What we know:
Elements: H1 3-16, H2 18-23, H3 42-57, E1 64-67, H4 73-78, E2 87-91, H5 94-103, E3 108-111, E4 126-130, H6 139-149, E5 155-163, H7 168-173, H8 185-194, E6 198-204, H9 206-226, H10 232-252, E7 253-262
Parallel strand pairs: 1-2, 1-4, 2-3, 4-5
Antiparallel strand pairs: 5-7, 6-7
Helix pairs in contact: 9-10
Amino acid sequence: MTPLERMTRVYDRALLSSNYRKLYDDSGYFNYGYWRGNPKTQREACDALVDRLAGLSGVKSGRILDVACGPGGTTKRLTRFFAPENITAINVSEAQLAAGRQRAPGCTFLKMDATALDFPDEHFDAVFCVEAAHHFNTRDQFFREAFRVLKPGGPLVLTDMLPAAFTRPWSEYLHLPLANRLPDLTTFGKHLEQAGFTDVRVEDATDVCLGGFRRYLARWPETERKQGRMSLPVSLLYSPGYRAFAAYFGAITKVYLIASARKPVPEAV
Length: 269
């Protein structure tokens, strides 16, 4: 089994778990969310993250590409901003694509590697990617492909993580190619520029995204108990595990970022 196949299998299994579905309110999201404004649930935080990216894009219409769409939560939210028939979502998991097709009817879902996009040059008006580029082999190749398929003036808008330093075996197990290991946000921005992008903006969103998620995750069993959706014994049983999960996510992620960049428009001759 290749590292990519192993990672896909891990995600597919996680997305089938009942606790995942409860945590995300069966929304099809699988990200940390955006916690500014005090959203009440994980789903609301994930909605807020997509809304933030849609606002950063500055795009109001046209063809949209949702890269690494998961089970379609982001794709469905994007239909609030763009016509479903103009949204294409890609992923390497057939199971997640099938879930996406049910969740966001009218959108196009295709099995495709983000580093080898099977689309013509200058085909999309915007490209979105939520919490996935650190897994791509490589992130730089994805940047080049996104640049190629974007129309002049089109934005790439994404969230991503700079993982903590791992040994090679652990990096391979998590499918975190060593080439994607970058030291800081400035270097991340330079890699976007090297792919040809301009108007590059990279924001440290570690606390507002990862921090908010960790705080919510650590107290989720207690929140479920207070809402009458979990008994006291079960919440007491789950609480240590969820606090450990929250600590784990903090340990593996050095920086969480939100980035936007634009394909330049050629100067008129």
